[in-house]
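User: Okay, second chain of the day. Same drill as before: sequence in, structure tokens out.
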Amino acid sequence: MVKRFLIPIILLFLFWSGYSQDSIRTSRDIYIARGIVIDGDTVWVAEIDEVIVFPEKSFNNFWQRRRYTRLIMNVKKAYPWAKLAGKTLEEVNTHLLTLKTEQEQKEYIKQTEQELLDKYTEDLKRLTITQGKILVKLVYRETGATSYDLVEFYRGRFSAFFWQALARLFGSNLKMGYDPHGEDRLIEEIVILIENGQL
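Assistant: Same drill. Structure tokens below.
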């Protein structure tokens, strides 16, 4: 008789203890609500993340949809490189301010350039020509300067001319700017969706 009652009690205890372990709250689970009092009423105040909504894309045919899908893929491939370029440029500029002579600055730029070439050349070679063009545009978006201007400033006019001529051979242009409200509107939308974690 005792066994009949003991087994259900043990099972109930195991179920209850397992349930209580799953429901333990941590400090990350707790949200402290803020409120303000307006005319005697308490109004809940919350900060929420911004969500940007773009109109749903409509395509006239399969090829337009495919072109847009490929653009998403290409921007996803190029965007991390543009972010890296912006971050690296910021670090270089900050460090250059600490160097006293022009010779030290030139040596630092040359050393940094060599380190970047050693580290990223093989990965950058895997970019397609289209991804390279998008990268040039996104570098402008991240830095506020064309790739040509950046090369000219850090490596000189001759280097800038050389790299521009090489880019032109592959149908690109280091002097390309970025127009988020015009011809680069779709790229800007895709970048915003990537930044918001929606793509």
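Strands lie at 34-38, 41-45.

User: Thanks, on to the next one.
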